[in-house]
From TrEMBL:
This is Uncharacterized protein YbbC (DUF1343 family). It comes from Sediminibacterium goheungense. InterPro entries: NamZ, NamZ_C, NamZ_N. Residues 49-247 form the Peptidoglycan beta-N-acetylmuramidase NamZ N-terminal domain. Residues 1-21 form the signal peptide.
């Protein structure tokens, strides 16, 4: 395995300021890997290039594919993950192959009939590029697509260029480490719910820990983010997926996505997913209410569609509390279970919109812990051995402080 990290300079200005103030100043000077074209354009010259991309694959406000195409880079094909290359498919909906209307470049879907490039797909490719914004949470499927791309590149002798991006939840390493008996499409690797890695750091970890199929090693070339550290607040320039459409949703996602494993609506079918939580059965217990509806491209058939749901409104929740605690919030799921009048329904898969809580959170004991009223302290204690081991292992693969 070869690994190249393109040289870069980290500038930490005003180091005598309090860390948050310094981070806020430095965040303005962050340069993503894609932004640093001077680092990788010379390497692409004369090569046949393929890109795994989605709408977050941008330089400034222009899609990387459009930018490189205009610069004369020979892009022979684009691969699209969940939600598609241009981002107009709903979560979980298969995406078909097509041609890009803007450039005429063939688009091959990796979220449909196949989930990784075939030998034939890569036959006319010299170098593969991965540039997709992640949000640092195990349920988010982009790292799964990256791992399969790494396997395909390794199997076919192709080098993978990763243009790295900040993790908006990079400060947060918390939650249970996945018990591999619950391995699924929303959890493929033994990492915690919030893993605290950028995609390039994850790629190094997947290589180093032998997580790829048949323990293959992918040849990596990385353009790191400049002027970045994991504690920096980072506001994404575009939404990373249709239902993470606000910064509030992105920062609450590590805590609220677990609600996909219980019989509650978590904002799908509204314009504020992952920031409201509720059910029609909580009427009279909570005063806040909202009504999920069918929204094309976001949630065509949300749980409790066209029914008034009552519950928690987190749209104005102070997310700095999460940053200061460096913990996901499990108090909300504990509160809503206690409040629910039909507790036997809470964890039952009564809708196709749900996963089991075991698959969602990644361990087997959480359901019973909540039912038994186990304290948050005791729940966290059960996570600690795996989480501590992960944190130590993570140090080997970090590119940023």
């Amino acid at each position: 395995m070869k690994k190249w990290i393109v040289p870069f300079v980290c500038l930490f200005i005003f180091s005598n300021l309090p860390s948050f103030a310094a981070d806020a100043i430095n965040a303005k000077s962050i340069r993503t890997g894609a932004d640093q074209t001077e680092k990788y354009l010379p390497f692409l010259k004369g090569k046949r290039v393929a890109i795994l991309a989605n709408p977050t694959t941008i330089i400034g406000k222009v899609h990387l594919v459009d930018s490189l195409h205009k610069l004369g880079v020979n892009i022979v094909k684009v691969f699209g993950p969940e939600h598609g290359f241009r981002g107009n498919a709903s979560a979980g909906v298969e995406v078909a192959d097509e041609k890009d209307r803007a450039t005429g470049i063939p688009i091959i879907s990796l979220y449909g009939k196949k989930n990784k490039p075939s030998k034939e797909d890569l036959a006319d490719v010299d170098i593969m590029i991965y540039d997709i914004q992640d949000v640092g949470v195990r349920f988010y499927t982009n790292i799964n697509a990256l791992s399969r791309l790494m396997e395909a590149c390794a199997d076919n002798g192709k080098e993978l260029l990763i243009l790295d991006r900040p993790n908006p939840n990079g400060y947060l390493v918390d939650g249970p480490v996945l018990d591999m008996k619950y391995r699924s499409g929303i959890g493929m690797f033994p990492i915690p719910m919030s893993h605290g890695l950028t995609v390039a750091e994850f790629a190094q970890m997947a290589n180093g820990e032998g997580w790829l199929a048949n323990k293959v090693k992918c040849s990596l070339r990385i353009v790191p983010v400049a002027n970045y550290n994991h504690d920096m607040p980072y506001t994404l320039p575009v939404k990373p997926s249709p239902n993470l459409n606000t910064q509030q949703a992105i920062l609450l996602y590590p805590s609220t996505c677990m609600f996909e494993g219980v019989y509650l609506n978590h904002g799908r079918g509204t314009m504020y997913p992952f920031t409201v939580l509720g059910s029609p059965e909580l009427k009279g217990i909570y005063s806040f209410s909202y009504t999920p509806t069918s929204i094309k491209g976001m949630a065509e058939k949300p749980l409790f569609m066209d029914q008034e749901c009552y519950g928690l409104d987190l749209r104005n929740y102070d997310v700095e509390k999460l940053r200061k605690s460096k913990k996901i919030n499990i108090g909300w799921i504990m509160e809503l279970y206690k409040a629910h009048p039909f507790k036997e329904k809470f964890f039952e898969r009564l809708s196709d919109q749900m996963n089991s809580i075991e698959v969602q959170i990644g361990v087997g004991e959480f359901r019973q812990q909540i039912i038994n009223g186990v304290s948050e302290e005791e729940i966290r204690k059960s996570w600690e051995p795996g989480l501590s081991a992960y944190k130590e292992m993570r140090k080997k693969y970090l590119l940023y402080p």
